[in-house]
Design a protein that fits this description.
Layout: H1 10-21, H2 24-55, H3 63-73, H4 78-86
Length: about 90
């Protein structure tokens, strides 16, 4: 599902800048590698959330838990975190 966003993700903007610096023959490989990286981060986020909610009886993550997850997984950029979080559906 596509969503209209008010501002572009710094992660995606940086990736586009890097893509245009690469020779044409390497661009597809670079994009595929970035998609694999995002997929791994998404899986890690899901597993981490499952482990955290298994501990908490309400099955809800607290703000503190979300901050900890973002720091542990290196998802400090809000747009990257939301991208990874929304793509788990």
């Amino acid at each position: 599902m596509l969503e209209v966003v008010k501002e572009g993700s710094p992660y995606v903007e940086a990736m586009l800048i890097e893509i245009f610096k690469l020779p044409f023959a390497l661009r597809k490989t670079y994009v595929e590698q970035q998609m694999r990286l995002l997929t791994r981060k998404t899986v890690a986020l899901l597993k981490y959330c499952e482990a955290e909610t298994a501990i908490v009886p309400e099955k809800m993550l607290t703000q503190q838990a979300v901050r900890k997850i973002r720091a542990d997984l290196g998802l400090n950029d809000s747009n990257l975190f939301l991208y990874v979080y929304r793509n788990d559906n």
